[in-house]
Amino acid sequence: MSNKNRRTVIAGNWKMNKTPAEAVALIKDIRAEIDGKDTSGCEVVACVPFVDLAVVLDACKGSAIKVGAENVHWEKNGAYTGEISADMLKEIGVEYVIIGHSERRQYFGETDETVNLRVKAALAAGLKVILCVGELLAQREQGITAEVVALQTKVALQGVSADELKNVIIAYEPVWAIGTGRTATSEQADEVCGVIRAVVAGLYSDAAAEALTIQYGGSMNAKNAAELLAMPNVDGGLIGGASLKAPDFAVIINAAQ
Ligand code: PGA
Question: Which of 41, 106, 182, 186 sits at 20 to 30 Å (Cα–Cα) from 228?
């Protein structure tokens, strides 16, 4: 499973950063770096806070940048104060949504089951999903990384058809590497991305697993991106901190060409 006949996707995860005005300024800076350059080697996505989506969609018109949200609720509508539905995102032109980020799991009570509900709702609405999985440091130290990631992947994909899977990207994000400056080695990243691919092969088929884009995320930056992206099972990156600096994000996009 090492031919890279897959879509490479470089996605920024802005988290809770940038007001709408700041968001437009950052998109302008990213465009100044990449507009007119050949970025055909990868898909570029900016996942931004809900209130930034409309202005970012506008600011990305005519560029290679696609736009994503950072979460979505699973119900179609109703009495869920403060939540945003997949149809709402779809209607304004959002293409991607991050689901199951470890910060949502850690701070907002996200479980594998609610991740699964969100994945199904997003796919049903025609959104593309960036599904995040990854182990805690204690789990890595206990030697149960593969089991943890396999379980997260299996539960998240319950009830997702092979056809729907084409709209799913999985992001392997070891929790101990997120925002810590401590990146997984390229071998560690590749190994766990390979585990995820094998799990998907078991759930669907070898062909489905072979076609699946699997990103690495966790302190990916301008310096380490090329090495990580060269690994056979790593098909892109989900980038937090470095996606907030246009020149760094551009270096990562370049590394994916
Ligand atoms: P980081 O975040 O690149 O700042 O480590 C990655 C992520 O949380 O998606």
Answer: 106
Q: CA 203, CA 50: separation in Å to the nearest integer?
A: 33
- Annotated active-site residue 101? The verdict is yes
Rounded to whole angstroms, the Cα distance separating 30 from 8 reads 18
Using DSSP's 3-state secondary structure scheme, residue 73 falls into: strand
- Buried b / exposed e over 101-132, threshold 16 CB at 10 Å, is bbbbbeeeebebebbbbbbbbbbebebbbbbb
Q: Mind listing the pLDDT tens digit for each residue in 202-237? A: 999 999 999 999 999 999 999 999 999 999 999 999
| Angstrom distances, CA of residue 128 to CA of 8, 52, 184 | 14, 19, 26
As a whole-number percent, the residues of the chain with pLDDT over 90 amount to 96
CA 206 to chain centroid, in Å, comes to 22
Confirm whether 73 is a catalytic residue. Answer: no
Mutate to test the pocket of ligand 1, among 178, 180, 223 (most ligand atoms within 8 A of CB): 178
Instruction: State pTM to two decimals.
Output: 0.97
Tell me which residue has its CA closest to atom 6 in ligand 1.
240
**pLDDT band, residue 2 (cuts 50/70/90):** very low
The finding on whether 13 has its CB within 6 A of some atom of ligand 1 is yes
**Contact call for residues 171 and 129 (beta carbons, < 8 A):** no
Between the CA of residue 209 and those of 2, 3, 160, 222, 236, what are the distances in Å? 11, 12, 14, 28, 15
Assigned token pair, 219: 């302190």
Rounded Cα gap, residues 126 and 124, in angstroms: 5
What confidence tier does 3 reach under pLDDT thresholds 50, 70, 90? Answer: low
Residue 237 near residue 172, CB atoms below 8 Å: no
